[in-house]
Structure formats: C-alpha cells, structure tokens
Amino acid sequence: MAGGGDSALGRASETALIVTVRLPRALEAVRQRAVQDAGAGLRGHVTLLYPFVPPGALDSRLRARIAQVVAAHVTFSFRLTGPAHWPETLYAAVEPEAPFRTLQADLAAAFRGYPLYGGAFEFVPHVTIAEGESATLPEIANDPAWAGPPVPLKARYVELIVRDVAGWKTKWRLPLQRSVWVLVCGERLRGDDGAAIRAAATLPEDVRSLAEVIEVGQLSVEALIEVPAGVAVIVADAAVGIPAGHVIALPLAKIAHHGAGAAPATSHSLPPDQVLALAEEMRGLPVRGSFVGIGGSEFAFGEILSPAVEAGLPVYAAALADEIRRLAAG
Fold this sequence. Notes:
Blueprint: E1 15-20, H1 25-34, E2 45-49, H2 60-70, E3 76-86, E4 89-95, H3 98-110, E5 126-131, H4 138-141, E6 153-155, E7 157-164, E8 167-175, E9 180-185, H5 195-201, H6 205-208, E10 212-217, H7 221-225, E11 232-240, E12 247-251, H8 252-258, E13 263-264, H9 272-283, E14 289-295, H10 307-328
Parallel strand pairs: 9-10, 9-11, 11-14
Antiparallel strand pairs: 1-2, 1-7, 3-4, 3-6, 4-5, 7-8, 11-13, 12-14
Helix pairs in contact: 2-3, 5-10, 8-9
C-alpha cells in the first residue's frame, strides 16, 4: 500500500500533525458517515506525522521547534481530486502534491523519532473520505459528492491535534509563512506621502490575516532582499507621474525592467526601477508582485492630505485589499 489511511489515527492519548482541509459540504457529509473518528471531532485533513509525541511531552520548546519548521514554508493553494483508494481506504488526492511533500519531509527530518505511520508507509498526501468496510461500498465511491467542480483550497496552518476521552481537539495551530508581504512606504508627516500608511491602517482584519504588512519608510534594496523566496510583494506608496488621487496597480516587473510612468514616490536614494533590479540581482530571483499607488501632489511637512488624495483614499484602500486577496489566492 503506497500511503496508508487514517483508520489507526484514533487510539487514546495520541497526537498528530495535520493540515486541516475544509471539504465541500456534500463530500464532508460522506466523510462523516464513513470515517469512524469524524464523530469524535476529527476533521478532514492531510496527515503529516502520526503517531507523534505523547501528550505529556508537549511543551513550549517542542512547539517552538515545530513552529520553526512550519514557518519556513509559505501558505499554498491546492485542490482535491478523486476518488482514489487503497485497501480499506477511499480518499481524495490533492494537487499539487509538492508543497505537502516538502512540508512533510522537513517535519520528518526534524522529528526522526516519529516516522509517519511508524515507517510502515511512504507519505502520499490525501484526505481520507471512507475507511474500513465503508471504503468498499459502491454507493460511497459513486456518491454524487465526488462529481462537483474542484474547489480551490488554501493551506495556512499546521495543527497539532490531541485525542482525549472526549475526542480529537486542536492544541496548537502553527501558521505557515504568509504568501504576501505588503511593504508600506511613506512618511506620516509629509502630506500625501503618508497615504499608503493611512490606507493600510483601514484594511479589514480578514485581509490583514492574508499578508504580512510592514512599514518600511522608503522602498529600499534591503527591504526587498528580506522578502522570503516564494513570497509575493506589494509595494504600497504614494505615486508620482499620475494625477493626484488616481489609483494605479502595476506589476513590479514592469517597473523593474521597463520603467513606468507611475512609480513609488519614496524611493529617494535610487530610482525605483534600479532598486528593484538591484534587489533581484542580489536575491538571485525575481521580485514577484505589484505596485499599488495613489497619485500625490502635496508632500510638505504635516499630516494633512491633499483634497484629491483624501477623496481617493477609500478607493485606494479597496484596491490594496483586492491585490492582497488576488496574490494570496495564488
């Protein structure tokens, strides 16, 4: 068997590391009927390590070790396919597999004393939908729930779950690296130069949860170099070269390699295209992402925005939120 189901994932006083998967409602209903521990609080998931450490060994040092491994991986999108099966297991496969495989491999390397399924099976990322006798029933494999269109899903956390007498519960939720960084440029006391800071402050919580929002003052090579590989970047700044209050979104590649009529206002030491090009050269890989700007006209000392920028601020904040959502969706 090239993987292994989760029928054993259920003995008392045990733990596991998983990525929880929110299944489509109809498929979740099938799983609830056909997976024994679904009624004991075990949600749809991809198992990364099981059996893991005994519950009595869970402490802050262990949490920090797991968190360090998890934080080296960015959030990623995936979808479910299937059905597929092994003996006594009917499951939904995941595509792409690669992000799950690299995450699981790093956890396995960090915790060699706890091989997946005791070393009995290789890792195949999947979500168990039916187990035991239920996995052999034609009505489960042929249920209309499998026929729905692929639903885009997002892996954001690794969870450590523990089983006690009441069932399975999440003890720790450890975040993957956010896949979007927002570099907020500007100075609050230079009129329209503070527009991006003001806009970022109004982002809804659900949007802020998708991105790492960092005030950097001015766009610099150093700020771009610090962005982890695989993470998209949004440069938010007041812009020059467009009318005051006008909102624009441009691919960073257009600025880096071709220049653009609109550009960040706060890159003072070097022109923005040179900052981006130099950062790419030093990183050894492109800076992927967007510039989201609002045209500014008054940059004198003081916190007051020009009337045009003040009026355009809600549209600018909405554009910034939309770009965060777009890039976070992969």
